[in-house]
Amino acid sequence: MAEGRFQAMVGVLVWRQEDGKYLVLQRSPARDWAAGKWECPSGRLQQGESFVQAVHREALEETNLKVRIECLLGTAHFYRGSETPENEMIGVNFGCSVDDTSGFEMSDEHSAYRWITAEEAQALFPHPEFMGRLIARAAQYQALMPLELRQLHWDDDLEF
């Protein structure tokens, strides 16, 4: 493959503290890539922006929610279209919680939203679909990660 540059992006999987349900958003039919697919808030980093800054900006832009980073869920490598260097994406997926969803507003990047359980996610997104795997990973983290470890991420001190 030809040498080139890739773009960095974040995925922001949001869950409600009150019931542990996960937010999934359906991409608008007008989107240039993956129209109609279900996803979590996500987007490319802007020049000079850190991953943590991008998490908070994307969450606000796409949901109007202020999120708290709970954990890193994993990374993703994919092509946004054909497998050419200009379409190559490297993503870091964050697990984030929200206490108050009363200010939720869906952006025009999406046409629908749902709050779903981990069990519902497995039915909606059967393996190997990305969203099902991401939500399953988040549910594992929530079940296994002690509060003290989650608190290490709360001040957004993830970047050195």
Explain the overall architecture.
The strands form 2 sheets. This protein has a 4-stranded mixed beta sheet with strand order 4-1-6-5, sandwiched between helices. It starts with 6 loop residues before the first strand and ends in a 9-residue tail after the last helix. It has a single domain (7-151), classed as Nucleoside Triphosphate Pyrophosphohydrolase. The chain has 4 helices and 7 strands; from the N terminus they run ββββαβββααα. The longest helix has 15 residues, at 130-144. The protein has helices at residues 51-63, 118-124, 130-144, 147-151, and strands spanning 7-16, 22-27, 38-39, 42-44, 68-79, 88-98, 110-116.
Low-confidence stretches: none
Which percent range describes the beta-strand content? 25-35%
Q: Indicate the CATH topology.
A: Nucleoside Triphosphate Pyrophosphohydrolase
Radius of gyration in whole Å, from Cα? 15 Å
**Assembly category:** single chain
Structural class: alpha+beta
pLDDT average, as an integer?
94
CATH class: Alpha Beta
List the secondary-structure elements in sequence, H or E. EEEEHEEEHHH
Please name the CATH architecture.
Answer: Alpha-Beta Complex
Q: List the domain count as a whole number.
A: 1
Number of helical elements: 4
Helix content: 25-40%
